[in-house]
Amino acid sequence: MGTLVVGAECYDLVATVGKGTFGEVAQGRRRSTGEVVAIKILKKKRYHGRVVKKELKLLQALRGVDTEESHIVRFLESFADGACTYLVFELLEQNLRDFQKKNNFLPLPVRHIRTITVQLLAALLKLKELSIIHADLKPENIMLVDHARYPFHVKLVDFGSACILTEVRHVKQPYIQTRFYRAPEILLGLPFCEKVDVWSLGCVMAELHLGWPLYPGINEYDQVRYICSTLGLPRGELLCAGWKTCSFFQRVPHPTALAEHCDLRGMVALLKTMLTWDSQERITPSAALEHPFISLQQVKSSFEATQYYQLCHKDLRASRKDASAVQLFPGTEEGAFIPASQRSIQEATTQMDGLSLAEPSGRLSIAGQKLGRESGSASHLIRWW
Question: Active site includes 12?
Answer without folding.
Answer: no
